[in-house]
Structures are given as C-alpha cells and as structure tokens.
Amino acid sequence: MEDAVSENIERRRFLKCLGASSLILAPLGCSSVKEGESDANKPHYAMVFDQNKCTGCGECKEACNLANNLPEGKSRLLMEQHSGGLEGQSCPHCGKTTECGCERKFVRVSCQQCKNAPCVTVCPTGAAHRDEKTGIVTMDAAKCAGCKYCIAACPYDARFINKETDVADNCDFCLNSKLAIGELPACVQKCRYDALIFGDINDPTSYISKLLRVKDSVRIKPGFGTEPSLRYIPIVKLGV
C-alpha cells in the first residue's frame, strides 16, 4: 500500500512538470526539437514516445520491471492516462460534461536521459554518471551512498531508491540488461503498437533520426536547460 501511494506521489510530481493536463502540439513549457551539431561524432541514444499510438496497455512497464529485476511497487516508467475533454464543456462524441474517456490519451513518465543531467552534476560519489561508451545516464551501485541528492536534483522527479539494493535507480534504456546483449530496451521490444522508438539520433541513417526529421516532437520543460533525450510526438487536435 505504501509503495502504491509513493508511486502515485511520484507520478503527480512528474505530471506537475508538464505544465498542462495533456500533451498537445506546442504545449506550455515544450518546444519543437531540432538536433544540434555538437558531439555529432558520438552516439546520442534517445527515445521517442508517440502519444498517437499508445493505448496504455502497460505491457512496456511490465517488460521493464522484469528485465531490470525491479522490486514490487517500483517502476522505472509509468503510463499516465488523461482525458482529452475540456472541463465544463460537453464531449463532442458523447455529449457528457463529466470525464468520459472518449478521447483518452497516455503519457510516458520516466527518466528524461538529459544531456545536461543535474543528477550527475550533484552526485558526490560519481555513482550517477554518464556511461563512457554510450553516453547514457546510469548508476554505479558500488559507489552509491544512498544520499538521495540525485533524486532531489532531478527536475522531473523520475528517480527513486531501489529498496532491494539501497541504490538510486532510473530508466537507463536497459543499458545493463537488454542493451548489454545487443537488444533494444525491453519496453521498445514489448510495445506491439510501435509507440516507442529507440536509437542513435547522431546517426543520420537511423530510423529515429529519420523520424524526427519529418515529425514534430516536443521535450518536457526545455527551459530547464537539461536537454532531455526523451522526445514526445503529441496528439494533434484538428480544427478549432
């Protein structure tokens, strides 16, 4: 029960950062993404979450928990459901003024894999660090002192203490589980609707690079200067 309450609090804190009740094109605090030229010769692994394709089935979360041996009640990613309806206005589909679920949409809540990661900057032991080969933000369990500085510094509230290991945890794109054996992250493999895309955006031939060149995408709170590597393709409402 305590874990469930804790998870709900973490989820609400993250969603507060969104600055809006749902992700739509050009939401408050988000901006269109154009990749820079710096570090072009190094890999920059990123993930795209396509809100148009996600059904909220939760299989990505289950796959992540299994692949990374996470304790019950804790997850590196969450799926948050929102209604597309506007408060006080009737739904154009069913006519109800209360939440009806006709325009349900889902948001992936997880570590943003920031290029300028505050968790790495504040860690006094070097436990929170960027993997030298891949550039992915991850943890060195042997160095973690459990001080929670990284958790406090994360502007997305996307980190937690793994109670089984007493080490701070975050989504690292399955760096030490799936990527280590040449596979895609567990959530990407499991998604049957192709709502998740993973790859090196510094590789112009990669699918994710080609996708971001033709699709409008947003990042959460770019004003923080953290340069998140998790990109969102939001649902675009047509018409006025």
TrEMBL record:
GO MF entries? 4 iron, 4 sulfur cluster binding; metal ion binding
Asked whether the UniProt record includes 4Fe-4S among its keywords, one would answer yes
- UniProt xrefs under Pfam families: Fer4, Fer4_11
Q: Which UniProt keywords apply?
A: 4Fe-4S, Iron, Iron-sulfur, Metal-binding
**Keyword Iron-sulfur set for record:** yes
Q: Which residues form the 4Fe-4S ferredoxin-type domain?
A: 45-73, 103-133, 135-164
Superkingdom classification of source: Bacteria
What the entry lists under PANTHER family is as follows:
PROTEIN NRFC (PTHR43177), PROTEIN NRFC HOMOLOG (PTHR43177:SF3)
What is the protein name stated in its UniProt record?
4Fe-4S ferredoxin iron-sulfur binding domain protein
